[in-house]
């Protein structure tokens, strides 16, 4: 299999929680050409368990993220299996000894790539779905003078308590499988746990209305509800590495733009420090990133606008290209933001 | 320990799905006195995993369900550990061989108790929370000439597809534990699975707003979110029998007032056949019984009114006495209904 991404060497990367990831790697893929003035770069981080190919649905000729106009960088999240992760890190930090990674760590690594490797000093836009939105908010709060616009969609600047609890359920289902063996499952993956986790996720990912309208059958073409649970949900999580999933889950649960030396836990202050023009885009029926949390964020950001996906697709209103109507809406809003 | 309930012998009880539960028992408790005219009985079925003491918060002097006025019967659901259940049924139908039980079976058993044992022919009210509401709807549809009023709260007449998926997650988490051993765990209960199931449930039981407002701490008095997850949620499910939980879960997932010889799957017809004056009461923020499903039901019932708990307590707006404001609201509505 040919590899369609590059690895950036982060060196000995000191993490926010104390560990050092020696020889840490950031996997990334770029689209388009960096302009001579280096003023056309867009950073577009990945989401929970996703990798850069899972982000490509938002990039294309004639779309807001047009590679003819922009230099688009997709950095893979630490822990996602391509950047440094439990599954690809040598001893002693391998598998379940892989250190805790924060969104702050991720964005600092991405910043290193963007500035030191590419020499970029201004970003017209950072955008992302879900945990990509979490990283997008971090970009705005950590580098307010560098980021001109942000468009976090279906995500939040801080993991809400309810979202945390939803993830506790996902984690408990995965780790209830004895085959998980505290992360030391080697080549024998915890299949039962991965399938259980998928079934837990299934109720959260799409809304009550999505299921009521049978869009799993009528829009996505599955042959029955059980087929959707097996083929879509179990099929999605089964190939993933359990320790990788748990690393990213921890990152998500501990996401908070103010949990660092810049803001010392003052969430309002961190939101207030985001200078970027922001389109904050929650989904009306997103069960773990409900619009109310976005409203709070927008109310405390100096230059932000709340734009809601009026969609029954739940969390999947925002990605990954699953709902065509919502993709179109998102693309139009991104164009509007980029042209402003 | 003294026993505060009675056992009614259902005899050899033929179940809707084909098995016969020989010597089946229905555990029940009554409050108040049956009038000489036998016209003051209220049936008030239990909810998922609940037993009759878990229903008592809605009964009391001066309340709608006043034992000075009414003869209140709480029948325990089959599978709940007191009525015939996997945990108390002798071989060969014990443990994971316990047969599939429908809500139809439950209500037919309750009807037998009420008519044959007590000689009651009219019921001024049937009411219940959650799966108790499911049984309430069944009473209305199965015995339309006997039931004068129904008040199903935070429940539905048919398990929605989304609700089904939520329960798939609960089930998958419980059964991912190898100790579950396909239900043959004997005395060594699947503790990890029960705890996992509890964590999955935690995100569904209360709403996003409940957690956002920290009502687990501020209203319920837990010392931290983790304390709430362990003490409230894990503490709730750990003492329960896993096979019992799965029996009731199957009953829930397959709940449908029209899935019987009376209506042959015609849900609208079954709703239309409910003659009882009905107060259908969903919770505004209930994540698995959203008001939209109740709206559909009410629209197809001849004599029903939709009354929504405007509450952030999610599913727990309706029970079990957890939210005092909502209990007061419910009690007032029940009084209004009983006096009409």
UniProtKB/TrEMBL annotation, chains A, B:
tRNA processing as a keyword?
no
Q: Name one Pfam family in it.
A: Abhydrolase_1
Please give the name of this protein.
Alpha/beta fold hydrolase
What keywords is this UniProt entry annotated with?
A: Hydrolase
What are the transmembrane regions?
none
- What are the AB hydrolase-1 domain coordinates in residue numbering? 64-316
Supply the Gene3D superfamilies for this chain: alpha/beta hydrolase (3.40.50.1820)
Which residues are the active-site ones? 130, 286, 315
Q: What's the superkingdom here? A: Bacteria
- Give the source species: Pannonibacter tanglangensis
**InterPro entries the UniProt entry points to:** AB_hydrolase_1, AB_hydrolase_fold, HAT_MetX-like
- Answer whether the UniProt record assigns the keyword Transmembrane helix to this protein: no
One MF term in GO for this entry? acyltransferase activity, transferring groups other than amino-acyl groups
